[in-house]
Specification:
The chain is α/β, with parallel strands linked by helices. It folds into 3 domains: 161 residues, Rossmann fold; 39 residues, Helicase, Ruva Protein, domain 3, CATH 1.10.8; 130 residues, Zinc Finger, Delta Prime, domain 3 (Up-down Bundle), CATH 1.20.272. A 5-stranded parallel β-sheet has the order 2-3-4-1-5, sandwiched between helices. α5 links the parallel β3 and β4. α4 runs parallel beside α5 and α7 packs across α8. The radius of gyration is 23 Å and the shape is elongated.
Length: 342
């Protein structure tokens, strides 16, 4: 993965190339931004460019021995640390620190990437901080994280921060359509729901997300029509169905509770925009534009806003490992109580 292979992020790429030209490399970088926008790929591109035997305009050639080793995953001086069981533990950092005591084996720079650095345990973070305070020559660290606030301030202060921005909807849609053979309509849908993340759009396009999305949007659109006396039964039925589809609530599950909440959240966001007379281009669910416009007229704006935040609160409850069936029962009843009050 060279700089020229990375979609978007021109500002981040331009900054890194300028730093390499000046030959005053910081020993640590912090790449921040939502998941799936190219942070880890850019870290690899940086490692390739720094160690390339035939660099071209600040980018790696992709053909020399050093580049081929990194691309093949067998470069002794390029290491990627990922969370295990959602955590980066002290043993992983100790192993890293041991290797840093030796000079790079074959490259000019040893590049160590810590993905999701916010997953470091307090013990691991403190151990890594000592490494940042006394860096060994020839070593460059790249930490990736969603938000700097999720890391120790002392770690953030010792890193050169580089921000990665969400990608435009059209860019994501075109890439998904061209590279993965997805229809333009489906590509536009997943691009709109991805929040500007290529990784997330790809994940949605490659599983059953689209089918489940349509089913759960139809369900939530039907909710205002249910009599209040039937709401309890509907809430219980939906909660059981969602729980059966994916009890873990993992964001990556196209059937799980968290995925359903994401779908509903996008729906109420669009209802708010429709009620405020915003154009269809601003909708995440453009293929439901007519339904959104018609349904939004039966709501007060304040009730739509409250519904949106109720779903957000339910998502946080799931993250805290609350009972998913109870979370959904309560949510559906609250959403029904707010539906169609004019």
């Amino acid at each position: 993965m060279r700089f020229s292979d990375i979609l978007g992020q021109e500002k981040a790429q331009r900054f890194l190339r300028q730093v390499m030209v000046r030959e005053k490399m910081p020993h640590a970088y912090l790449f921040t931004g939502i998941p799936g926008v190219g942070k880890r790929s850019t870290a690899q591109a940086l490692a390739m460019a720094l160690n390339c035997l035939s660099p071209q305009d600040g980018d790696a050639c992709g053909l020399c021995g050093s580049c081929r080793k990194i691309l093949g995953g067998n470069a002794p001086d390029f290491h990627v640390i990922r969370p295990g069981s959602n955590k980066i533990g002290i043993d992983q950092i100790r192993e890293v620190n041991h290797g840093l005591s030796f000079a790079p084996l074959s490259a000019q720079y040893r590049v160590l990437v810590i993905c999701q650095a916010e997953a470091m345990t307090p013990e691991a973070a403190n151990a890594f901080l000592k490494t940042l305070e006394e860096p060994s020559p020839g070593n460059i660290f790249v930490l990736t994280a969603t938000e700097p606030l999720d890391l120790l301030p002392t770690i953030v202060s010792r890193c050169q921060k580089v921000s990665f921005q969400p990608l435009p909807r059209g860019v994501v849609a075109n890439w998904i359509s061209e590279k993965k053979g997805v229809s333009q309509k489906e590509a536009d849908i997943v691009a709109g729901l991805s929040g500007g993340s290529i990784g997330r759009a790809l994940e949605m396009a490659e599983n059953e997300f689209l089918e489940n999305r349509e089913r759960w949007l139809e369900r939530i659109a039907e909710l205002p029509g249910f009599p209040r006396t039937e709401a309890q039964g509907v809430a219980f039925k939906w909660a059981e169905e969602i729980k059966a589809g994916g009890t873990s609530g993992a964001q990556g599950s196209s059937l799980g509770p968290a995925a359903v909440l994401d779908i509903w959240k996008s729906w109420y966001r669009d209802l708010l925009l429709a009620r405020a007379k915003m154009g269809e281009h601003s909708f995440m669910n453009r293929d439901f534009s007519q339904s959104l416009k018609k349904m939004s007229m039966g709501f007060k704006i304040k009730n739509l806003a409250k519904s949106f935040f109720l779903i957000d609160r339910a998502a946080m409850d799931l993250m805290e490992n609350r009972n998913s069936a109870l979370v959904f029962e309560h949510l559906v009843l609250e959403l029904r109580a707010l539906a169609g009050r004019l």
